[in-house]
Each structure stands twice: as C-alpha cells, then as structure tokens.
Amino acid sequence: MNKKTAFYIGFSLIIISFLLAVMSYYMLFFCIPAFIIGLLFIWFSSANNRNKILLTFLPILLYFPLSIGFLYWYNYQPYTDVYLPKDFSGSVRLVYNENCASAVPIDKKKRSIHIPPNGIFLSKDSLESGSAAYHFYIPDEKGEMQKLKLNGPFGDKDKNEKEVFFLGTTIFDAEEENYKILQNKGFESVDFYVNPKGKAYSPERKYDKQIIQNLLNEVVSCRNTIK
C-alpha cells in the first residue's frame, strides 16, 4: 500500500467514525477503534506533520461541543404559548391532525393557542406530545398575562396557587365501543388540567365522562363541516 492510499483510507475512517460518534454515543464502542485505526493510517501516510497533528487532535477537541449541539438540535422543540380564558380551571384538551380545524396561529415567530371556554382546542397541525413544549398563561385581575407553573401528573397538595398538570396523551379509537360516534377515524389529544386555587389535582378528572363526551362531540362537529 502506498502512502497516498493510506492517507485516503485513514482520512475516511476518521471522518466516518467522528460523524457517527457525534450522532450517537452508542456508536463510540465501534467509532473509537475505527478512529485509532484511521490515525495509524494517517501517521503512516505521506501527509505532513501539521495535517497529521490536526487530524489527531481536532476531532477530539470538537467532539464534545458538536455532540452537545447535535443533541440540542435533534431534541429541540419550539415552545407553544397556550393562553387560557380569565379565571379558567378544568380540563384542557389539544386535538391535532384534524383537517377540519385551522392551523395554529403564529405570533412573533412563536405558535400560540387560545383556549376557548370549553377547554377544547382543535388543530390541523401536528402538536408536540411532551409537556416541556408548552407555556401556559392566564390573565390576572388587570388583564395582564401571568405564566402558570407546569407541574407533573401529581402536584404538591399543600400549594394554594393555580397551576397546570400534564396528563399525557389519550388515544380515542373509533373501533372502541365507547367512541363509535367517531365513525371511521379516531384521534389523539394532548391533555392538561388547570386546577382551581386551593384544590389538589385528582387523576380521575382526566376521564370525567362529561369531559370526554364534550370532546367527542366537538371533534365530530368539526368533521361534519367538511362532509
């Protein structure tokens, strides 16, 4: 093997192993040996010492910042601002991928959802299923928007402040007996609950029969507009 060929082989191994390692730390077990083999080819090649040193240390120096940057980009979710009516409390259901509904409005380059009094919002867009993608706001006595605390599924029962609880997503299957009203197409909703001040969250509220019925009726009514 001539030294020019050794350089191309080594350079290819270094670049491929570096990119794979940045995209997934699970690949390090395979990438580190490939990187070392690539370095051996590089140091055997006809490359000058400057390039050999650069190809040895530059990937090592760039690995951590680029890995962190890739993970941030890959997992990035733009925040969606959710605005509640004044004095609102109760169930918030965000239904997505409904062609009969409107797109989520964009306000100052951010998506914004204005929740109606019944707490049900339908969108033709896809919506994120994780709680971290949403910021909730409610107007105070002066009409100024105040950000609400977003808690997990179980809150601190001693707190007396209004807050939002993330309940996960619910799948409504059109084949299920309770949801036959949906006919041929089911749907999913991202579910939250805004508790009244001084009252602790109760998991049973997610499956309140009247809330579910109102939600089903809202979806069916929307779909009927495009028949």
Q: Short description, anyone?
A:
With 227 residues, the protein is an alpha/beta fold. It is 36% helix and 22% strand. It has a five-stranded mixed β-sheet with strand order 3-4-1-6-7, with no helix packed on it.
Give a written overview of the molecule:
This protein is of the alpha/beta class. 36% of the residues lie in helices and 22% in strands. The protein is built from four helices and ten strands. The protein has helices at residues 3-23, 28-44, 49-75, 209-224; strands spanning 80-83, 90-95, 106-107, 110-114, 120-122, 134-139, 145-147, 149-151, 163-172, 187-194. A five-stranded mixed sheet has the order 3-4-1-6-7, with no helix packed on it. A hairpin with a 2-residue loop joins strand 3 (106-107) and strand 4 (110-114). The radius of gyration is 27 Å and the shape is elongated. 23% of the residues are buried. The model has no long low-confidence stretch (mean pLDDT 83).
